[in-house]
Amino acid sequence: MSAKVPADTRVGHIHLKVTDLDRAIHFYSDVLGFAVTQRYGDQAAFLSAGDYHHHIGLNTWHSRGAEPAPVRAAGLYHVAFLFPDRASLGAALQRVLDHGTALDGAADHGVSEAVYFNDPDGNGIELYRDRAPKDWPRAPDGQLSMVNAPLDVDALLAEAR
Question: What pLDDT is stored for residue 22 in this prediction?
């Protein structure tokens, strides 16, 4: 029998190795909008959305001044941040673009709309919003039928205005 976690299990936080803590804090705080909840000198910081203790941990314990991890190596592909609605996703995307960060992709997956880019250390980032489960595309047998269709980025940005 395979193990199963409870259906209400959630990913609580991520912890990323970064090469420059101040640069990473600027990106995750000033660009993405997370608030710093605690900082340990020049070694680590914790950031959050809302009143949670932390959603993101950043540290330089093993990575200060290091090169980015190789693209063609095992490890984290990306971390995804779920936004509550299309307008807040569009506003976050606008801040990312205003920061000069280039998108690596944008997709309509049927179940969600997502944009992809890298943080200053090369960590993959996805910003997305889910559609209501009743609107998710399904095959005749009821299984999800997610897609990888182009996302109208201009329409998403217009939602933020």
Answer: 97
Closest CA to 13 of 65, 57, 76, 55: 55
User: Confidence band (pLDDT; 50, 70, 90) for 127?
Assistant: very high
Task: Tell whether 92 and 146 lie within a shared domain.
Answer: yes
pLDDT of 83 reads 96
Same-domain pairing of 56 and 83: no
Beta-bridge partner residues of 124: 118
If asked whether residues 86 and 58 sit together in one domain, one would say no
Q: Indicate if 156 and 97 belong to the same structural domain.
A: yes
Identify whether 2 is part of a domain.
Answer: no
Nearest one of 100, 86, 99, 62 to 153, comparing CA atoms: 86
Helix or strand or coil: residue 134? helix
Q: What is the pTM of this model?
A: 0.93
List Cβ<8 Å contacts ≥24 apart for 142-147: 144/110, 144/111, 145/110, 146/109, 146/110, 146/111, 147/108, 147/109, 147/110
Nearest to 60 by CA among 18, 23, 13: 18
Are both 90 and 154 inside the same structural domain?
yes
